[in-house]
Structures are given as C-alpha cells and as structure tokens.
Amino acid sequence: MSPSDTQPVGFGLRRVLLSLFFISLTGGGIALAWPRLAHALDGAEEAARGSDPGLLVLAGMLFAAAPASCGLLWRHAIVRAGGRLAPAQACARYGVGSLVNSFAPCHLGDVVRAALLCRALPSSAPRRVAGCLGLVQCVRIAALGALALASWLPLRLGLLVAVGAVVAAVFRRKQAALIGLAVLGPVAKAAAVAVALVALGIPEPLAAALAIVPALELAALLPLTPANVGAASAAISVVLHARGVPVADAVPASIVLHGVETAAGVLFGAGSAIFLLMSREPEVPQQDTGARPEGRPWALRAFRAFA
C-alpha cells in the first residue's frame, strides 16, 4: 500500500478516535451537570408545550432545506469541474454527513460527505472544485456578516444589505448560480430560526434570527460535542439575552430551537441514507478518468475510506 493510500485512512482514524474521546467527555459532563441540566430541560419542555407545533414543523423543514441547498451547491461545483451527479444524489450524500454530525463531534460528518461527493469527480478535477468552494466560503462569510449587520440595523437599512448582495450577484453573472446557492443556505437557516422563535413567542423574531445564525456558525467552528450540544444552545441564549429576552426564557427557547434543528438534521440524514442504500452510485465519465469505476454501493466505499 502506497503512502497516498494510507494517509486518508490515518486521517479518518484520527478523526474517529478524537470523536470517541469527545463523546466520552460529553457523557461525563452530562452526568456531572445533570441536576442543573434537568431543570433547564424542564423549562424547555414547558416552552415546547406552549409553542405552536405547526410552526415548529415548518421550522424543521426550513432547517432541512439548508443542507439540501448545500448539496445542490456541491453538485453545481462538481458539474462545473467535469463530474456528473444527479441533484437528488448530491443532496442525499450531503445529508448523510448531517446525520453523522448529529451523533459525532469534530466535523466527522464533513469528512464523510466530502468522501461521498468526491466520488463523482473525475481524477483531474479537485483543483477546479477547490477554486469553486473557495469562492463559496468567501460568499458564505460575507452573507453571515451581512446577516449579523442587518440584525442590528433598522429594517430599511437592513434591506440595503440584501440589495447589495443582489447587485454583487449581477456584476458576477458567471458566478450568479454559485453565489445564489451559497447564500440560500444561510437564508433558509435564518428563516427556520425566525419561524421557530415565532412559535416560541420570542419578541422581534426576525432580527433575533439574523443574529443567531452567525452565532451558530461561530459556535460550530470547533464542535466538541455531538450535534454541538451545549455550545449551540449557549450561543442562542447569549444572543437572545443580549436582545432583551430574560435568561429564564432565553435558555428554554435555545434548547427547543437547537432540538428542532438537530431533529431536522437527523431526519434529513436518515432519509438520505435510506435513499442512497436503495440506489446505485452513478459512474464518472470514462473519458475523464481512464477507467470505469467498480460501481459498488456508496456504503462500501465510505467504509473503505475509514476502515
């Protein structure tokens, strides 16, 4: 086995071992903090009972739309790089990563989704995809910064931020689709948070949602717990309290909101896994790779990457 073959395996094993370590720490932390945690969960249960269940379901659907848009974004980059991947396949492969992230820390799901999505790339395409994804990251950072800025501005000034984004897309017509898909994810997430806050009776839900989404992204930079439990709720609580919501209301609302997001990720990821198990991985065009892939199911390929 060549060094190039052993390097991804070692990287994957390190991620797995690190994830198991932080899962153990999470379990120990929950056991030690259970008395206080139980009180917070009781408050979250009361908040959930007093909320509008229909709006919470709608918020979950919008949360699921965010990873679906990211899957379409990957598919757009893969097609531009010469690969071939159906939209449903792209969304499903990305969704499996969301499922893994719901139960494992350290962005292990990102490794899984990248491994699955890159199967659709020809051998000469990684550099072209890297360029597209670099632009995507810049657009996402700008979009999150715009959301944070708009949350603290009056409504009319906040609309100027959206107008500026549209103007930027017009000037970059060749990248308009890529920019649109990159912005769609944060916008769908902000809409989901706003709907959930309306269901929970939080005042000024739109402005709060625009501030919560960037805070969640910051908290997810280094997720030390499965589904970023604790850190995500803390970030939401801090934002809500900074906007005048009492701590007694902010903490239960943050737990319910993060629970809806996690449930949406699990359901979307589980559906994605079932879809992929029932389908076959499409072949990469032979002229780009020089050889026909083996055509095995995606699960065996993902297992090979981390065995």
What report would you give on this structure?
This protein is an all-alpha fold. The chain has helices at 3-32, 34-49, 53-80, 87-103, 108-117, 126-151, 155-171, 176-200, 205-219, 231-242, 247-277, 286-289, 298-306. Helix 9 (205-219) runs antiparallel to helix 10. The longest helix is centred in the C-terminal third of the chain and has 31 residues, at 247-277. The chain is globular, with a radius of gyration of 20 Å.
Write the layout of secondary structure elements.
Elements: H1 3-32, H2 34-49, H3 53-80, H4 87-103, H5 108-117, H6 126-151, H7 155-171, H8 176-200, H9 205-219, H10 231-242, H11 247-277, H12 286-289, H13 298-306
Question: What can be said about this structure in brief?
Answer:
This protein has helices spanning 3-32, 34-49, 53-80, 87-103, 108-117, 126-151, 155-171, 176-200, 205-219, 231-242, 247-277, 286-289, 298-306. With 307 residues, the protein is mainly α.
Protein traits:
disordered C terminus; 307 residues; mainly alpha; single chain
Instruction: Give the low-pLDDT segments.
Output: 1-9, 286-307
Mean pLDDT: 76
Major pleated sheet? none
Quickly count the helices. Answer: 13
Taken in chain order, the helices and strands follow as HHHHHHHHHHHHH
> For the CA atoms, what is the radius of gyration?
20 Å
**Distance from first to last alpha carbon:** 14 Å
Query: What is the beta-strand fraction?
Result: under 5%
